[in-house]
């Protein structure tokens, strides 16, 4: 599933392509928006924004809400360019004079009025979106110090969108590695210094992934690893999907486990169980 950085990058691509422009052609084949073309056609794209893993596109008086889930994907191309062949199912096509934005294969799509956004079941439960540049460290630190989350293990807590929004599987492993925290630690076991490290790592790791298109290692290390012959997938993370390989920091082997069917990777040396 795409995580917060990927959805924010998709929003940025759509924003740069069609925000401020008029919709000249639209296709709405998906059941939940079928027959609603009149609500888009001739209307201005006012704003494009990601909220965690959801996309919100304000068009005229309405807001197009979508969540990519596992298989959804937004694509953007110039009107003058040829559409690539795909086996994906078109959900909506938004065309302006210059660009075409398409959503493929997603199944969570709705048309909302602006006042309904904050009441939407997904949006209403979100914590601070760590991929959003407007979210400050103080907001994240407030969540980290919130006693209602205190008794939960970090490995489970990071996938709870009401705690921190936009974090998924790869970011969970990478955030905990950057913070030097063992995944099984409970939030209320962290010292004040560790709380700060955790909050800072949640923001910095997520935003690094946004800037570097899903890469969570430092650029210099990434470039070095690629020069040594590693593929992008092999070089992009410190621990995620690197089980059985040497840690880049301490050279110990990366450990791997599965929680609720989802992988978790960490370094037992860099992320010790005791504080």
Structural class: alpha+beta
The CATH topology of the largest domain is given as Helicase, Ruva Protein, domain 3
Uncertain segments: none
Biggest β-sheet strands, sense, barrel: 4 strands, antiparallel
Folded structure, characterized:
With 275 residues, the protein is an alpha+beta fold. The protein has two domains: 4-124, N-terminal domain of MutM-like DNA repair proteins (Alpha-Beta Barrel); 137-266, Helicase, Ruva Protein, domain 3. Helix content is 27%, strand content 20%. The chain contains eight helices and ten strands. The protein has helices at residues 4-18, 121-124, 137-144, 154-157, 169-179, 192-211, 219-227, 232-235, and strands spanning 25-27, 45-51, 54-59, 62-67, 73-78, 90-95, 99-104, 108-112, 255-259, 262-266. The longest helix is centred in the C-terminal third of the chain and has 20 residues, at 192-211.
């Amino acid at each position: 599933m795409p995580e917060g950085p990927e959805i924010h990058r998709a929003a940025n691509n759509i924003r740069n392509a069609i925000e401020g422009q008029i919709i000249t052609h639209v296709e709405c084949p998906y059941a939940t928006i079928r027959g609603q073309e009149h609500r888009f056609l001739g209307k201005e794209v006012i704003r494009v924004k990601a909220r965690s893993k959801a996309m919100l596109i304000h068009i005229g008086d309405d807001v197009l809400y979508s969540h990519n889930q596992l298989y959804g994907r937004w694509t953007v191309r110039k009107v003058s360019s040829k559409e690539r062949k795909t086996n994906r199912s078109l959900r909506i096509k938004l065309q302006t004079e210059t660009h075409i934005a398409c959503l493929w294969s997603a199944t969570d799509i709705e048309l909302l009025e602006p006042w309904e956004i904050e009441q939407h079941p997904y949006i209403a439960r979100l914590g601070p979106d760590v991929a959003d540049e407007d979210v400050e460290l103080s907001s994240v630190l407030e969540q980290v110090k919130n006693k209602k989350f205190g008794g939960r293990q970090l490995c489970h807590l990071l996938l709870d969108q009401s705690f921190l929004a936009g974090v998924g599987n790869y970011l969970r492993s990478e955030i905990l590695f950057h913070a030097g925290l063992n995944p099984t630690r409970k939030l209320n076991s962290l010292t004040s210094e560790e709380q700060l490290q955790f909050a800072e790592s949640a923001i910095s790791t997520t935003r690094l992934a946004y800037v570097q298109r899903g890469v969570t290692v430092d650029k210099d290390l990434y470039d070095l690893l690629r020069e040594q012959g590693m593929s992008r997938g092999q070089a992009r993370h410190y621990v995620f999907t690197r089980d059985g390989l040497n840690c880049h920091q301490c050279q110990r082997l990366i450990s791997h486990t599965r929680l609720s069917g989802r992988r978790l990777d960490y370094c037992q040396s860099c992320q010790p169980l005791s504080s």
